[in-house]
């Protein structure tokens, strides 16, 4: 018999989703456990039972966000066999999904907080591994040319982050369409690839 | 707390001092940790004086971030790349200026990242962040346009390459800033030079000192 029979396991994902929303809206500093509980339609003790502290809640929310992102990527990539199509799909997902608010929270926290830095490295490491894998596959199938898939993944990942920041803060010059166009065009140059860039690359303004 | 609760005519710099103190505290502690009382203390002002100039904490923080970028922009955008003898050298200076180099560069970068977070959370700050990106883009695009016109760079759309350049500086810079083991400042510099060199058809060695042994 669980010591806390009233807290059922179904609550955890709801709490995480609620935490991600509330933290993105208000920032970690102004997020109260009670706000997350209210959004998740549960109690503060239930939130504390699962996560303990706000910092843990943020890292857990990010891991959950990452898990969903990975799931989405895996789903979209499953039906594709060419690495070029896969890379294009990754860019499309990033551009569609570009809300980096939680990442920004994690980056700024990482500057002052060691556990946050570790969490950031874990998530970043897995994301980089995913990009590296697609690039390596492309190289072995002759679709991409690069000396170092790891470095190419680093460069592409950094570019995606930089563009996503501008999309997140709604820089009018960098729309989602423009983000995608720049990703495709730059990756084609970097990897000597043909990503059949669509939509056609043109200036947004 | 030796100051009066209203601005004194012999204290024309109080507002400046307060803004400076705020930016220093944002850089060292993170924006969420900045308290008015600590800003006041550091600026040798009263909290009432801080409130006289800035009605809310949010306004103070926003103004502090803005001012620090405007100062930085004025100093570097005007001097460095525009005065360089060639567009290639101008771009090399831009790469160096835009990455979180040790000291002042790193401090400004911390504020830059805080501004992103602020603008992501607070829609009313977005137009401000947008304006900063606009002058940043214009500055980079000008360097690229110059190189296209002089024939140093291949025929590209300067605005598009400027967007890529900013994305690279931001994305590579933040990784160097948070001490990503895979991204030292040198790697960030090298990658920015390689990526932009490839886009513009110039040797990356002319955009950054990519030989680590030459680095002092």
Structure overview:
The complex is a heterodimer of chains A (205) and B (216). With 205 residues, chain A is mainly alpha-helical. Chain A is 70% helix and 0% strand. Chain A is built from 9 helices and no strands. Chain B is mainly alpha-helical. Chain B is 68% helix and 0% strand. Chain B has helices at residues 14-29, 36-42, 47-53, 57-78, 80-83, 87-98, 104-121, 126-150, 158-177, 185-200. In chain B, helix 1 (14-29) packs across helix 2 (36-42), helix 1 (14-29) packs across helix 4 (57-78) and helix 4 crosses helix 7 (104-121). The longest helix of chain B has 25 residues, at 126-150. Chains A and B meet through helix 1, helix 6, helix 7, helix 8 and helix 9 of A and helix 7, helix 8, helix 9 and helix 10 of B.
Based on the model shown, name its key terms:
heterodimer, A: 205 residues, mainly alpha, B: 216 residues, 10 helices, elongated, disordered N terminus, disordered C terminus
What is this entry, summarized?
With 205 residues, chain A is mainly α.
